[in-house]
Amino acid sequence: MNTLFLQLAFNGLVSGLLLALLAVGFNLTNTTRVFHIAHGSFYVGGAYAFYAILPLFQSQSLFFVLLSALAALLLVMLVASMVEVLIYQPLSRKKSGQGIFLIVSMGIYLFIINAIAMFFGNQTKSLQLSYARRKCTVESVFWVIKSVPGFRQFLLRSIENVKGEWDIVSIAWNLKRLN
Question: Quick one: residue 33, left, alpha or beta (phi over 0 = left, psi -120 to 50 = alpha)?
Answer without folding.
Answer: left
